[in-house]
């Protein structure tokens, strides 16, 4: 399978206080994942390595995609990247990024 068939699927949500992203990275090891935040844009990069084929075996079909892949996700509000957290477990990268004070909703009393 072509490496271009491999994409990072991301669920993005928002709470009152933070942005939450769940990136699906099955068959990827934690040490092969990198994460950067540039302003309010999240950059996820991963490498899924080719599976080992024992000597003498020949596959009649290969459907697993492998190689390097990256994904850029824009967050529609300012975030505090210094307080961002990321956890990788069971092929899911969970990213939490708090909103900045300026982007939090503030209720205004009408007089």
Protein model, in words:
- There is one protein chain.
- The protein has 111 residues and is mainly β.
- 0% of the residues lie in helices and 42% in strands.
- It is built from no helices and 7 strands.
- The protein has strands at residues 9-14, 18-24, 33-38, 41-48, 67-74, 85-89, 92-98.
- The strands form 2 sheets. Strands 1-2-7-6 form a 4-stranded antiparallel sheet, with no helix packed on it. Strands 3-4-5 form a 3-stranded antiparallel sheet, with no helix packed on it.
- A hairpin with a 3-residue loop joins strand 1 (9-14) and strand 2 (18-24).
- The protein is elongated.
Keywords, please?
Immunoglobulin-like, 111 residues, mainly beta, 0% helix, 4-stranded antiparallel beta sheet
State the gist of this model.
The protein is mainly β.
Protein topology:
Elements: E1 9-14, E2 18-24, E3 33-38, E4 41-48, E5 67-74, E6 85-89, E7 92-98
Antiparallel strand pairs: 1-2, 2-7, 3-4, 4-5, 6-7
The mean pLDDT is 89
Please state the overall shape, judged from the principal axes of the Cα atoms. elongated
Q: Report the top-level CATH class.
A: Mainly Beta
CATH fold topology: Immunoglobulin-like
Query: How would you classify the helix and strand content by structural class?
Result: mainly beta
Q: What count of helical segments does DSSP give?
A: 0
């Amino acid at each position: 399978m072509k490496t271009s068939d491999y994409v990072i699927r991301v669920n993005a949500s928002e709470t009152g206080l933070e942005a939450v992203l769940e990136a699906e990275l099955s068959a990827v090891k934690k040490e092969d994942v990198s994460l950067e935040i540039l302003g309010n844009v999240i950059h996820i990069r991963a490498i899924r390595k080719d599976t080992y084929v024992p000597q003498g075996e020949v596959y009649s079909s290969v459907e697993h995609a492998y190689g390097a892949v990256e994904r850029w996700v824009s967050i529609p509000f300012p975030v505090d990247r210094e307080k961002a957290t990321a956890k990788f477990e069971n092929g899911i990268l969970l990213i939490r990024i708090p909103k900045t004070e300026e982007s939090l909703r503030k209720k205004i009393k009408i007089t």
